[in-house]
Amino acid sequence: MISKRIIPCLDVRDGRVVKGVRFGDLKDVSSPAELAAFYSDCGADELVFYDITASAENRSLFTECLIETASKVFIPLTVGGGINSLEDFDRVLKCGADKVSVNSCAVRNPGLIDEAARLYGSQCVVLSADVKRVNGSYHVFVRGGREDTGLDALSWIKEGIDRGAGEIVLNSMDTDGVKQGFDLPLLSAVCAFSTVPVIASGGAGCAQDFVTLFSECPKVDAGLAASIFHFGEVTISEVKQLMKNNGIPVREVV
After folding, report:
1. Phi-psi label, residue 222: left if phi above 0, alpha if psi -120 to 50, beta otherwise
2. What does the alpha-carbon distance between residue 35 and residue 241 come to, in Å, rounded to a whole number?
3. Closest CA to 15 of 72, 54, 48, 56
């Protein structure tokens, strides 16, 4: 069986890693380069780097911060935030990214997914979706979770896959930073139709939450988390050991 991946997430604002609750109340954590090097050494399978205010501020992602961060890691690095064109894809990849994540820009210009997949390959294009329940339905939010598009999230994610996205990062705004477990109903709904890897994001509060995630949603390929790793509440090796103890395939920490 394919090993399940554990992925720390670096939410970067003004060159610093921050973390909040339900996309708000952001607190300073650390330097992205230092934290990336730490996770690379501690057994993370991949790393995600988001410039979380780039889209809301209508600017490009800070390249200097990214270059420094990419130079510290030797695991796959996904980068997102302010990606609006093929030129942005090219710039970020040249800065050291392995995969590029699109969110707000893809909603405005879905064709960017098609164009990037044709030029760089689907394996390079990650569709990140910030999803929140609104009146019983799943809606897509953009601009760092600030704007409700009214789009049906399940339909949008399916369209993204059909257009060539090779991976989905599913961010549950309802569970983000709450530390009460991943959004299993939302994940199950997406996994029911997804033909590409799905990464669960939002809600991890302890190592057991990863075991529950992969046990209840076996089609999920990876678990992404920030707070519990950033603040030392649990280590990646502890998560992987518990997963291994529960029969979940995992790449062991060297």
Report:
1. beta
2. 22
3. 54
Cα 122 from Cα 133, distance rounded (Å): 28
Give the residue extent of every domain in the chain: 5-245
Furthest C-alpha separation in the chain = 46
Task: For tokens 């990336």, name the residue.
Answer: 36
Catalytic: which of 45, 51, 88, 130?
130
Tell the CATH superfamily of the 5-245 domain. Aldolase class I (3.20.20.70)
State pLDDT tens for residues 133-169.
999 999 999 987 889 999 999 999 999 999 999 999 9
Q: Is 11 a catalytic residue?
A: yes
Distance of CA 251 to the CA centre of its chain: 19
Residues making up the chain, counted from first to last: 254
Count other C-beta atoms under 10 Å from residue 191's C-beta. Answer: 18
More confident residue, 32 or 134: 134
**What is the per-residue pLDDT for 23?**
47
Structure tokens at 14: 């003004």
The answer to whether residue 130 is catalytic is: yes
Rounded distance between C-alpha atoms, residue 177 and residue 184, angstroms: 15
Tokens of 190: 């997406």
